[in-house]
Structure to design on (313 residues):
């Protein structure tokens, strides 16, 4: 028992030291001062240059293509999993379907097996709006973690290219407490934004702040994601409205009318190391451990982005 206690104490000390190291690293990246509560506002809303198009017809998954990762999601992030992805190798009607909820049709995502629904349309210069809400169920290995999903955009490449489960893309994170977070999905994805150091967050301790220091978002590095400016999500069980504004290699993330993040210089890294601007792609609705409903998915063309301003601290 004595050895066990010593071992546990060493693990706790090691974890504490690692946490301090990650905070020091984030502080060095973001600089001073420490992030303060911020109130952001959206101005200069773009005027649509054409009619809105529904990406969900309310009856079927016409236009959407399913893809599933591993039967055991816990191996998703292993360097070389022994298993192979499910892909399209089984009937996915038990994973993705159109069902009635709250008296209207919606896309149901079970969430038990990780993967995505990919829309076939190659989109550029658009305002996408959708509504989502969480279902009742969560699944291993994340049943005790925050509910997790995502709206992935500028998606490209092969199905399952990232961890056998998703296509390379930029992510508008959908996660309790973090909806609107910016994530680079795939080792060759890049994007720039502005951040402040926030020690209250888990690593990488970086929160979007339009007045903060510019960083490059790079997967599998200390800047792999940037937390939303604020938590604007409604309570679990309520519907949320997400607005994604994209023009060229820039995007603005809005949650329930509140701007929470902005990213620019979206790009991929070519084989010779060159940074190639990423200005279009498909969208993916993730399946990542939590039952989720999506509805009212529309897209309309735009030529300009709204502007995020600091309304108060």
């Amino acid at each position: 028992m004595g050895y066990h206690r010593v071992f546990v104490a060493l693990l706790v000390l090691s974890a504490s030291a690692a946490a301090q190291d990650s905070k020091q690293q984030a502080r060095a990246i973001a600089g001073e001062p420490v992030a303060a509560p911020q109130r952001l506002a959206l101005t200069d809303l773009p005027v649509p240059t054409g009619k809105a198009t529904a990406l969900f017809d309310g009856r079927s998954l016409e236009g959407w293509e399913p893809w599933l990762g591993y039967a055991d999601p816990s191996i998703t992030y292993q360097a070389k999993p022994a298993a192979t992805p499910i892909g399209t190798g089984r009937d996915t009607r038990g994973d993705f379907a159109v069902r009635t909820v709250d008296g209207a049709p919606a896309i149901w995502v079970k969430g038990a097996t990780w993967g995505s629904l990919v829309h076939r349309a190659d989109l550029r210069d658009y305002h996408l709006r959708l509504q989502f809400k969480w279902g009742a169920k969560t699944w291993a290995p994340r049943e005790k973690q925050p509910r997790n999903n995502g709206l992935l955009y500028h998606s490209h490449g092969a199905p399952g290219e990232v961890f056998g489960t998703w296509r390379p893309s930029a992510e508008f994170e959908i996660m309790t407490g973090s909806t609107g977070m910016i994530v680079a999905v795939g080792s060759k994805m890049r994007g720039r934004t502005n951040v402040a150091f926030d020690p209250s967050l888990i690593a990488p301790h970086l929160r979007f702040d339009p007045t903060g220091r510019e960083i490059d978002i790079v997967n599998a590095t200390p800047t792999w994601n940037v937390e939303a400016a604020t938590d604007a999500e409604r309570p679990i069980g309520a519907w949320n409205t997400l607005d994604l504004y994209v023009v060229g290699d820039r995007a603005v993330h809005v949650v329930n009318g509140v701007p929470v993040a902005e990213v620019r210089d979206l790009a991929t890294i070519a084989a010779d190391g060159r940074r190639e601007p990423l200005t279009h792609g498909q969208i993916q609705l993730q399946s990542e451990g939590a039952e989720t409903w999506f509805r009212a998915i529309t897209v309309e063309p735009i030529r300009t982005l709204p502007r995020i301003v600091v309304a108060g601290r």
Residues 1-15 have pLDDT under 50 and may be disordered. The longest helix spans residues 2-30. The radius of gyration is 20 Å.
